[in-house]
Batch of 3 targets.
Target 1
Amino acid sequence: MPYDPSDFPPFAVTVDLVVLTVRRHALCALTVTRGEEPFQGQWALPGGFVRADEDLASAAARELAEETGLRTQDAGSQHAGAYLEQLATYGDPGRDPRMRVVSVAHLVLAPGLPAPTPGGDAGGAQWTPVPGLLAAGGGAGGARLAFDHARILADGVERARSKIEYSSLAAAFCPAEFTVGELRRVYEAVWGVALDPRNFHRKVTGTPGFLVPVGGTTTRQGGRPAQLFRAGEATALNPPMLRPEV
Amino acid sequence: MPYDPSDFPPFAVTVDLVVLTVRRHALCALTVTRGEEPFQGQWALPGGFVRADEDLASAAARELAEETGLRTQDAGSQHAGAYLEQLATYGDPGRDPRMRVVSVAHLVLAPGLPAPTPGGDAGGAQWTPVPGLLAAGGGAGGARLAFDHARILADGVERARSKIEYSSLAAAFCPAEFTVGELRRVYEAVWGVALDPRNFHRKVTGTPGFLVPVGGTTTRQGGRPAQLFRAGEATALNPPMLRPEV
DNA sequence: AGAATAGTGTCTATTAGACATTATCGT
DNA sequence: ACGATAATGTCTAATAGACACTATTCT
């Protein structure tokens, strides 16, 4: 089956970003407001065209920086910087009414940021709580996401939920130094469940290489001062942290 | 950031297939021999262009049927037919020296087939043992795979290895009816380890909905007749089957 | 003092891993 | 009889889940 350059139909290739963070105990995704048709005025995931000379991960990192100013450290060493990995590719004909667009979605896990509106670009990116975005039909308080972005977001959230089970990725939602309690609140926000603080503490501190004590303490959560940790070298969590049954 | 059709560079979009099976206790991948430059005479993964009017999964299923005659039942109910899921997308500039090609790789798990050469197309698809293909530099008995296909194959094999841990996907390597011992040999071939037959039996038969007894017995493995099962409705395996440490 | 959070310890039911034993075939 | 594989059972160490208790801060 020989290649013939005149043989292949023209495709546009884009990257879309599922950027997740935990703000005030809630899982939030980065959304932009569409300024034009189709889906004008609705929310969408940030994204854009892949350039002729860049690879897919670079395009995703560039779009992320343009929209939020966040720097990434794609796969591998965590912190400082957001975690980025490829999520999946969406290419149904008709997913964009204007032309054939194949979008390579990426998942970004970012530490909680104080700024209500992450710095930057046009369109006004903002953090939106995930539950409202995923509610069927875009129910209470949520406009429906444009294109097939609700599906992409759902896939990204499910990836994040399952990945923190068996990896140390939850630390990507935390600042460089964090407490056991702060890490637990990340799990609780991403999974939407309450975890036993004592069993959680035993689990994460008992896994070699998962947490590295950094020496100081903090009382930013109130109560007794808590030890500060940073993420350790271990990327795999074995045996995994089990997500409680629903 | 308005869309401008004249704005985006032209991409070719292809699907590549990592088709895995277990033959004679060995994990094998489907390979084709390249008939032209570049990489003429070397092995490559089967694949081809996505057509203008088909989605990505359909393109992968079509290519699979063209190369092997295998039918798929992409995601969801298993058997009869191969399991197909999207793997990842590879789009580095220069991964194909002739033009910018973004390839959406798919993973296919197929039951062991008796025919040495799966039916079909030009190029002569054949089953090749995975270890030789993945050996660094394409060592003993193995030509190096063309393009970045060694990387794609490695990613597909790793996906298969990790997915059978927590899902019932290993049954996709088996015929519609199979024994516990045959299923165990699939795990052993995919992971490359030996498992305890007694503990394995207890694990898989003790997980509700994983295996459904179908009534008959077989002696095709020799020894005492073994009960026949088919894959049950349960797709998740919780707690997971643990891959022994290396 | 009281509320809030951190950190450690205890008990139990479940399970993975190692291994013994019996059952039923083909040769 | 012998070798192969299937199927069930036993024992132990490790662990998840439930929960008691103490420690240290702020208001």
Target 2
Amino acid sequence: MALEHALLVALSERPASGLELTRRFERSLGFFWHATHQQIYRVLGRMVDDGWVTVEVVAQEGRPDKKVHTPSDLGRAALEAWLAEPLPMETFRSELAVKLRGASYGDRARLASHLETTRAEHVARLAAYELMEREQFPDPAGLDEAARDQWLVLRGGIGLEHFWIDWITDYLQETS
Amino acid sequence: MALEHALLVALSERPASGLELTRRFERSLGFFWHATHQQIYRVLGRMVDDGWVTVEVVAQEGRPDKKVHTPSDLGRAALEAWLAEPLPMETFRSELAVKLRGASYGDRARLASHLETTRAEHVARLAAYELMEREQFPDPAGLDEAARDQWLVLRGGIGLEHFWIDWITDYLQETS
DNA sequence: AACAGCATGTAACGTGTTACATGATTAC
DNA sequence: GTAATCATGTAACACGTTACATGCTGTT
């Protein structure tokens, strides 16, 4: 029961259609949340039924109509209530960790080569995030509240990529 | 389709019953994987059906019998095949990130106080992991292959806790 | 005419979570 | 005798993933 709230945050920042939300999730909130369009459409439908968002059909030029969703008073209240709840202790789930730990039951050299690939992907993501930081937040001191929160979450994404890269690098050094 | 493989790694290290596996997951692999006993029993049952593990009923003194599971040749082959597959790009899912980003749509002071609690929990987990490292791996240079992998994954857990603590600290400083 | 993109959706399936159930033993 | 621990399990539900379906517009 959290995708609802993630969508409410995104729609509070700016009303959007299902597909726009999907793309926005891939980019900005995507460092820490991922959802397919099918999931988003399903949850969005439920939120409309529950009166958390209102829908407006917007005609576009040269494109199909889109359904733009906006949080209602009820939705804003639900978001506020959720934000006030204590944070659950989160446990990440990493297939990589399982493979590192199980390395001696398979082909260690082959795993190492896959790890090189994964590290390169994280290096690329880190570079993309750092570019986003420079372009979208050139002057952190001058940001308003909501933008500063976005910036701080982006910094979290950067920190997480550093963690991955450092860990894989450490592992490859120790096992080489 | 990955809990199967995580269980195979754990059972390769040492055969175990469902409940023993659940507890082991909470401790050692738990930094990067979590599973309830219901999930583990279900998957274990499927693995028995598929011939990936064999079961031996072991009588105990003053306790109920337990079913000890051991990987079969088929299971070992399945694990090896899985380990040889490329790693999927992992995307973590963090409720904390969503709340940080949504802070301006709720009670910021209240969120900050929850964040203090969460940070304290991560500090405690970090201390527990560091204690485990000192006690279980006092001499990293002298470890065999499997134990070194366990140590390196524990170091990953330590790195992840550092990430959380640093991020939350950074956020609280910037928004205070 | 074929293909890619926009936009929304259905259906089937697999995984994860929550609540509850059973029965035995040990500790207070 | 009440509660806690060990050990295994069932059932119902929520959530996530994959594949497929529709129809329209713009490009090659």
Target 3
Amino acid sequence: MPTNFIQELKWRGMIHDIMPGTEEALLKESVGGYIGFDPTADSLHIGSLVQIMTLVHFQKAGHKPYALVGGATGMVGDPSGKSQERNLLDETTLKHNVECVKLQLEKFLDFKGENAAEMVNNIDWFCNLSFLEFIRDVGKHISVNYMMAKDSVKSRLETGLSFTEFSYQLVQGYDFYYLNKHKRCIVQLGGSDQWGNIVTGTELIRRKGGGEAYAVTTPLIKKADGTKFGKTEGGNVWLDAKKTSPYQFYQYWLNTSDDDAANFIRIFTLKTKKEIEALEKEHAEAPHLRVLQKVLAEDITVRVHNNEALKTAISASNILFGKSTADDLKALSEEDFFSVFEGVPQARISQAEFGKGMSIVEAMAGKTNFLASNSEARRELIANAISVNKEKVDEQFVISTENLINGKYILLGKGKKNNYILIIEG
RNA sequence: GGGGAGAUACUCAAGCGGCCAACGAGGGCAGACUGUAAAUCUGCUGGUUACACCUUCGCAGGUUCGAAUCCUGCUCUCCCCA
């Protein structure tokens, strides 16, 4: 007997829109449900984490989750939320992306047991479907008028969209139909921008076979300060450790504002209502300890990466933001040093170039490009923002061999949050 | 087709012959405070071999001792009338 999936999402604030009858249908018996992931890059980013969590909850409620990687839909391009026609990815890149995304998704779901998760790729049912078959069997059931009424299409009529993007909703709709017919998939989940596409699917299922089909969408995640969720100056926050190091990943969550932390912990962790309320109380009593942010960051980092990565991220954070000194830095073994500072920008300079020493300005800008120009380095030095091995320095400072840790590397810093490692190669 | 307005640094927006590397606001960065927060206060926000020099105010020329500011042409944008 399944538990109440919809109520679970509701108290977590994860429901934007829901089709009438969905809750009842999901309570009757264990069924299948799916979410599609776009292979637009070779890694998912934390925006997709909402969708992943929805699938996780779906499975926990006793249903069978299907994670669909859009090998076929990726070839078409979803116009939803896009103001311009997209460029198509070539097939090789697409294949590569599909494989990468698949591997990432596999981490989160349980592929064993009665309601084991399943990975599907829509290229498998599209590759043998001919164009004529498609427009006869699928296109015949959905009117152009209906398709044009969708926001994703309507908002593009002024600027234009290709037939390819226009057809997208039919392609995605067919996915739903296919999974509904072959895998007993009765609900499609997704972000709120997917509502239109999902509904085309339920419509197709009803018209083509009279089957039952439902839809649930999650809200777009917003931050209280109005900036985009999941973005930093450096770009997206990725799930791939090669693109966003576990340290940066951990830091992103740790820096969640008080206003957002309570929402995020509901959405991105599996903590129960009781646990979360207790944490909120604790946080309210001692806000400076930032219990919510810490639990949030730890929980997600462990699930996306692993325990080991979390440990390193925490120790890196303690060293960079805690009370540690130059001596603590020097006490780290070389291996620890580099694993702690993985993901921190690095530059290498030859022994010859370093010579007996190097001015701090050259080390920050001229020779390394950590900062855009020597002028900027000077400005920051005057503002007392630059540190060498955690100690503030002034413009006169010259880095000498004595400052090098283990004789070969050194930690430079600008302000509280920017660190750079300079390595002298022998 | 006719008439008018405009194009200034990341964005908005002053300046209309020398005092302009260019007011101000936003954004960004940093300092203080703090909780690696918010709010607040302060400084910075073209480059360099730095009390000077160099490159910048749509593009290309010109006038002048000297122009972002004046003239000519070009490109683009907006508005009004038909």
